[in-house]
Amino acid sequence: MCPLHDRANPGAGCDVVAVLARTNWATVDKTMAGTVDALFRRAACDEGVPRSAAWRARGRTAAAVAGMLAAAVSPVSAGASGPAAPQDVAATPSCFGAAARDVLHPCSNPKLRLAVVPTPVQAARDPNSPCAKTTRIGPLNPCAFGVAAAAATKTIALVGDSHASALRPAVDVVARAHSWLGISITHTGCAFSAATKQLPEPARSQCRAWNAAVPSWFSMHPEVDTVFVSAITGSHVTVPAGRTTAQAKVDGYLNAWRRLPSSVKHIVVIRDVPKARGSTLRCVSHAIAARRPAGPACTVPRSRALVTDPEVVAADRFSADRSQAVDLTALMCGRRSCDPVIGGALVHKDIHHLTQTFAATLGPMLLRQFDALVASWLPPANTTAPATLQ
Fold it and tell me: Residue 37's pLDDT band (boundaries 50, 70, 90)?
């Protein structure tokens, strides 16, 4: 049974923030396994709790953790209108996750040398970050993140396949920092693209139907003028005669974006993340057992982890004032290799999906890059107030 489980108040669920606040990170390299168990003992926490209540509790916890990480690892915080920061932020380890690679604010914490949060076993059963279901419209099953609609000053959207879903904790940090409501419109195995992805039926037809419905959703919601998109780089699509595979993928994104209504003024492409090897998580587990730093022990060559992202190429070729790309690769990779554990946080939960934990730590740096883009969109007199962008 989770020590923080409250049967009298099942909606409270398992308060990971409280666990973090009580964790003695000074001894994490000696008691890492116990620390991780305390942080991620979700199955026990959910015992006897209604599934809906447990999920709502995870949503509150994920939001609080994202806010805590944003406040702890970056000078850019969520602000007064964002989620309340935990009172014991000092107990959070410095340089955790992507903060360890922040070139603008160099950071190193030797106490995280052997930390791996979550462990590969725990990451394998880690679901996507919580997202409150909204009204289903045909093949679309949108869900909400960020701040509550009643408190939101603006609504943004996140569109794409499961890689977009995996980045939702980072986009959530952006949304909460600006008091925005986020709507996630994703479909596993299906990028927002007019190219036909090579999928078995009925998945292929379902992907086509989903793509056809996305522009209509935006037409019904003209208040949503900014959309974040991301998708896996290694998918296979049908290649028309006279085009290469790379060209067909770029064309697919361009044609999909052209179908969006003019009310969508800004398309922000988040470059796809580097990939791990099939053996990476096993290597990390072995490093944990051997009490060796898993990051340097299980690196993946950059040339293997990264390939050209056709969605980024499309952003460069689309309307210059309507599409831009942000690239978080430097937070995961050096010049020669990409690490599976950064700042004590496990990067991937499988070969190519981020863990919720690491994705949340990307949030402050995504916020910084996004705010720089917003400044370029606004007239000079308004560049100091990106949060009020209409």
Answer: very low
- The pLDDT confidence band at residue 381, using thresholds 50, 70 and 90, is low
Residue 79 has a pLDDT of 31
Mean pLDDT for 72-86 is 31
Please return the burial class of 135, using the count of CB atoms within 10 Å of its CB with bins 0-12, 13-18 and 19+: exposed
**Segments of the chain assigned E as strands:** 132-133, 143-146, 154-160, 180-186, 226-230, 266-270, 300-301, 323-326, 337-338, 341-342, 345-346
* Apex 79 CA angle, 77 and 83, nearest 5: 90
Burial class (CB in 10 A: 0-12, 13-18, 19+), 52: exposed
Q: DSSP assignment, residue 93?
A: P
pLDDT per position as a tens digit, 241-270: 999 999 999 999 999 999 999 999 999 999
Residue type at 370 in one-letter notation: F
Structure-derived torsion over alpha carbons of residues 77, 80, 83, 87, reported in degrees to the nearest 10: 80
C-alpha separations of 183 from 131, 217, 218, 234 in Å: 9, 11, 11, 25
145: β partners: 182
What lies within 8 Å, CB to CB, of 53 at 6+ separation is 10, 11, 13
The strand pair at 143-146 and 180-186 is best described as: antiparallel
Task: Give the pLDDT confidence of 195-216 residue by residue, as tens digits.
Answer: 999 999 999 999 999 999 999 9
Which pLDDT score, from 0 to 100, does residue 14 have? 32
Helix (H, G, I), strand (E, B) or coil at 139: coil
Is residue 51 classed exposed, middle or buried when 0-12, 13-18 and 19+ CB atoms within 10 A define those classes?
Answer: exposed
Name the helix (H) or strand (E) containing 281: helix 280-289
242: left (phi over 0), alpha (psi -120 to 50) or beta: left
Residue type, 82: G
Residue 349's contacts (CB-CB under 8 Å, 6 or more residues apart) are 120, 123, 124, 126, 355
SS3 call for 152: coil
SS3 category, 336: coil
